[in-house]
Structure to design on (365 residues):
């Protein structure tokens, strides 16, 4: 395994106990001398002279410099559909922050890119958002956080427990025309899928536009489908197709004005075969709200919109059985539960470390 900003780290030369904030300092070579400071929870092994971290915080730095000493706030548990928030506070500038949720085989379940959320004096706070897929299994995962600043870096590995969540199941019969629309291969569908995937996995670091709770477009509307619903489509020839619904379907009459869920920049505004007239708004780097099946678009790509601003009108364009708005939220290509994001701020950097500061202020009393 490679620690961030290092070579393969094949040789462990020295282990020294240091002050209580750090469990030990590991001196490493190849190709140059490096030091690795660990916390008291650190667990690692040596295989053929290489260091293999499995748990805890590892801070790697050249001997002529000081190690990075960030404060980190990361969750330990969650549910399918959650949008996880990870915060990193540093007294010196950072170059990058990335976070990943990995299964025991070290395969990524999801990944997020950090961004500078706020700064005060010399201290800056970075945030990274991580979506948990609706189909993720309840089990133990690993949360991997990487922080870099020049030749110095930090790696945090911690256990993350995913709880079980039940979802609604539904069966939907399709007409011959809808069956054709849904199943017949089309080069345009493939091209549109690739464009949409690229849009929804391209974060813009400057897109820190909305930090409050999202606005539910139609809070009183009849919901015809919910987030995470397990769908069984019955095709015109009686064949069956399974899928997972990634947003909310809100039934409203054709022409009903659709408000933006939050302040942001329109990164996509066009017609697609399956989703009809579509708008996508980026609210935070890599966090997008999505609006499908509209009869009309009233916002253009590149436009800044405010929370509540009308961006289109309800319709039933594309793959739709009736007039409604499909409203969805994605974080770096992972659809998350939009209901949860109407109940709490997307980001609260002021509160991120409040419990840590309170605990530190009462220590020793």
């Amino acid at each position: 395994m490679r620690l961030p900003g290092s070579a393969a780290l094949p040789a462990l030369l020295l282990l020294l106990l240091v002050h209580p904030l750090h469990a030990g300092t590991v001196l490493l070579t190849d190709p140059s001398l490096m030091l690795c400071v660990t916390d008291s929870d650190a667990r690692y092994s040596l295989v053929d002279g290489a260091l293999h971290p499995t748990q805890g915080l590892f801070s790697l730095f050249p001997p002529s410099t000081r190690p990075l000493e960030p404060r980190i706030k990361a969750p330990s548990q969650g549910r399918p559909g959650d949008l996880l928030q990870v915060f990193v506070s540093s007294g010196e500038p950072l170059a990058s922050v990335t976070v990943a949720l990995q299964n025991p085989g070290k395969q990524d379940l999801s990944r997020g890119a950090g961004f500078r959320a706020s700064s005060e004096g010399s201290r800056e706070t970075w945030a990274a958002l991580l979506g948990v897929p609706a189909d993720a299994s309840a089990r133990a995962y690993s949360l991997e956080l990487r922080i870099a600043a020049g030749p110095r870096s930090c790696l945090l590995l911690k256990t993350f427990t995913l709880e079980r969540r039940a979802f609604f199941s539904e069966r939907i019969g399709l007409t011959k025309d809808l069956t054709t629309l849904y199943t017949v291969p089309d080069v345009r569908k493939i091209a549109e899928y690739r464009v949409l995937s690229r849009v929804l996995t391209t974060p813009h670091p400057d897109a820190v536009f909305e930090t409050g709770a999202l606005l539910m477009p139609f809070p009183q509307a009849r919901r015809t489908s919910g987030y995470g619903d397990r769908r069984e489509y019955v095709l015109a020839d009686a064949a069956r197709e399974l899928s997972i619904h990634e947003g909310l379907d809100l039934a409203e009459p054709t022409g009903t004005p659709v408000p933006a869920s939050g302040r942001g920049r329109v990164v996509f505004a066009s017609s697609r075969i399956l989703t009809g007239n579509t708008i996508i708004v980026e609210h935070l780097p890599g966090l997008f709200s999505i609006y499908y099946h509209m009869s009309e678009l009233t916002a253009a790509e590149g436009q800044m919109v405010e929370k509540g601003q009308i961006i289109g009108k309800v319709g039933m364009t594309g793959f739709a059985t009736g007039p409604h708005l499909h409203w969805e939220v994605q974080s770096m290509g992972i659809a998350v539960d939009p209901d949860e994001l109407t109940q709490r701020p997307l980001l609260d950097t002021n509160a991120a470390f409040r419990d840590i500061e309170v605990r530190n202020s009462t220590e020793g009393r």
Notes: The CA atoms of residues 32 and 62 lie 8 Å apart. The chain has a mean pLDDT of 87. The helical segments are 176-183, 187-200, 349-352, 354-362.
